[in-house]
Recover the amino acids of this structure.
């Protein structure tokens, strides 16, 4: 009976240890050293329990019994690790599949039903004023489209344009395959760069950055799941990465002043 209890305690102790420190062990050691250390820990812990039992004058069983018990524990732990690994992989796939992708372009129209973000400047960015400014050739609007099949929980956008101006836009809940139109304080002639900070439908924090004429780069913040990865030019970065600090400083220094409305009719430059 005592022998069985000892095996159960060993199993629970090692299972707890592996689950708690698995990521740290994998980071510091290679895969093979990780398994070797686990095996050594298992063996030594078993010997320790056996010694304690033997010191009280009780029978600890033959070597064959111990080998069999350790093998059972090893199989049990292997099963737990395999299940945990598979669960992490599935969660990683879910996170990766829910990442958004954006397209962006200058535009001279707002389509009916599109969401519009505008600086909160009274009387200057009403639908009528927007149309008048388009007709006066003051510049362009800017359309940002979620081209993925995944909704976005929240977004904050910084648009740098005309070399000396920027506007900040913030909102929550962007449906899949939908667009928003950004109305700058001063209409766009030439945009320089765009920053986007977002929270995906899988609660993953991400950043997108693009300079005019270049491809967009996406950065995703690592979580505890080591199975999460990226594809192509996308990058996985830690919470302490210098890039995140640069992004956060950019967003921290800029206060959002946007008001959102939904266009109830098309707003465009009149053809002449």
């Amino acid at each position: 009976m005592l022998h069985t209890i000892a095996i159960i305690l060993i199993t629970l102790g090692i299972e707890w240890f592996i689950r708690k420190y698995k990521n740290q062990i994998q980071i510091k050691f290679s895969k093979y050293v990780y398994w070797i250390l686990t095996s050594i820990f298992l063996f030594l812990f078993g010997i320790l329990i056996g010694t304690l039992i033997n010191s009280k004058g009780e029978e600890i069983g033959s070597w064959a019994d111990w080998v069999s018990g350790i093998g059972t524990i090893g199989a049990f732990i292997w099963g737990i690790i395999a299940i945990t690994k598979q669960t992490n992989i599935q969660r990683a796939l879910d996170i990766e599949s829910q990442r958004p992708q954006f397209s962006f372009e200058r535009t001279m129209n707002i389509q009916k039903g599109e969401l519009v973000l505008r600086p909160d400047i009274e009387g200057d960015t009403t639908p009528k004023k927007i149309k008048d400014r388009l007709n006066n050739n003051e510049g362009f609007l800017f359309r940002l489209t979620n081209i993925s099949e995944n909704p976005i929980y929240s977004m904050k956008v910084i648009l740098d344009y005309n070399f000396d101006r920027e506007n900040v836009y913030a909102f929550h809940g962007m449906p899949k395959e939908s667009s928003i139109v950004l109305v700058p304080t001063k209409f766009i002639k030439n945009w320089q760069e765009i920053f986007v900070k977002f929270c995906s439908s899988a609660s993953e924090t991400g950043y997108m950055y693009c300079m005019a004429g270049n491809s967009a780069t996406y950065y995703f913040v690592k979580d505890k799941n080591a199975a999460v990865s990226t594809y192509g030019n996308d990058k996985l970065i830690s919470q302490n990465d210098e890039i995140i600090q640069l992004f956060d400083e950019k967003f921290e220094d800029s206060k959002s002043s946007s008001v959102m409305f939904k266009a109830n009719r098309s707003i465009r430059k009149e053809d002449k």
About this structure: The two ends are 94 Å apart (CA to CA). Confidence is low (pLDDT under 50) at residues 27-31.
